[in-house]
Amino acid sequence: MENKLVTAVLVGAGNRADVYASVSLRRPDRLKIVGLVDPDGVRLRLMREKYAVPEENCFSDVSELVKRGKLADAVINGTMDSLHVPTSIPVLEAGYDLLVEKPFAVNETEMEALARTANEHGSRVVVGHVLRYTDFYRAVKKLVSDGEIGRIISVEMCEHVNYHHMAVSYVRGKWRSEKLCLAPMLLAKSCHDIDIMLWMMSETEPVSVASFGSDFQFGKDRKPEGAGSRCMADCPYVDDCIFSAKANYLAAVRWSQYVWKCLEGKGPLTDERKAESLSTDNPYGRCVWDFERDGNVDHQTVILNFKNGAVGSFTMTGGSAKSERNIHLVGTKGEIKGTFEDSRFVLRKMAPTTRAGYEETEYTTSEGGDKIGARGGHGNGDENLVLDFLDYINGGEPSTSCAVLADSVKSHRTVFAAGRALKTGTVVPISASEDAK
């Protein structure tokens, strides 16, 4: 494998693209950002300055980029979910390899169109399933691959999305409604987790799915009596509500990348300007119960049946006190159980001659969760993913963690089927197309 410098164009100048591109600042020998595409002039300027991109290589639209011919080896696509396919197909047709943020498509028609285009042009495509690259999940996967627990009988997984993350992203934010972002919450938030389940179960295929869930907490009919329209303008609960904009965005300074985007590039972010913004036109200052959610869920359970007879369950719950991902794999020779954010899991092996009937080994991995470490977030999975992508397009074989397009198509197809199962109340079969194989 040739370890040459890879050049890349960022399509979308938002938070995720910035996270991936930041690898170029820490590893300038591996990655160089040479172009930018974004319709937001402020974001384009800020990212151009951060990554020293020539002004002539900055564009407001992908169509302008491809007219210039091929400027780089690859494209890193960090646009909004519904824009991934419309902005990826032109760059694949132009000969770029692609790293695209998850979910890479918001419906099966778009998913198959992108897979077909990538196959026709021989493009290398990797999807940003960063959890595969964390030390925690890689360690679990290695034990599974080494046969430590035998053949997996069942997988139980859950993701608890804490209350302030739920509110900022999936109630007040741009993922609150399928009308707005075209992606239901299971796809937008938890396609990571379905991908991890199928990765652990790579010896077999999911064949059918059932699903249940609802919007349990939000909507105008659940709004506290007497609550105002804006936390910091007219609400008597501003100092008591767990979703208060004052508590979450001023006192605790959470989610700055979303909440203060409307003030970006307009001078210093003083406390006075922030308070005025939340009190007037900032959408993150609105009452959390006033948003239209278009039938989107705040909790959902998915039950999978696999071809070999194994089963899997995944539950996403929005509104917990603490964010947490748990996994429990039960196999014919033992089991693995752990929590990602704790960076710890246990391996239990059958031991019939012992008093307990099993022997347990505890494993501790490096920093987990969404904490920002020396190499980025997602338990340092962000940087690991980018470096693996660079190796792949330099001619290396996909690593065990690498979510190539065919892998992601499988997990996306499962999520789409789960959505149909939820809406119809039926067990839905999961099938594959030729383009996705």
Provide an overview of this structure.
The protein is an alpha/beta fold. The protein has 3 domains: 6-123, Rossmann fold; 131-217 and 296-378 and 402-436, Dihydrodipicolinate Reductase, domain 2; 220-285, no CATH class. Helices cover 34% and strands 22% of the residues. The protein is built from 16 helices and 15 strands. It has helices at 15-21, 23-26, 41-51, 62-67, 84-93, 108-121, 135-145, 163-170, 178-181, 185-200, 231-234, 245-251, 256-259, 271-279, 381-393, 405-424, and strands at 6-11, 31-37, 58-59, 74-77, 97-100, 125-127, 152-162, 206-214, 299-306, 311-320, 324-331, 334-339, 344-350, 358-364, 428-429. The strands form 2 sheets. It has a 9-stranded mixed sheet. Strands 3-2-1-4-5-6 form a 6-stranded parallel sheet, with helices on both faces. Helix 6 (108-121) packs antiparallel against helix 16 (405-424) and helix 10 (185-200) crosses helix 16. The chain is globular and about 70 Å long. It starts with 5 loop residues before the first strand and ends in an 8-residue tail after the last strand. The model is unreliable at 369-376 and 433-437 (pLDDT under 50).
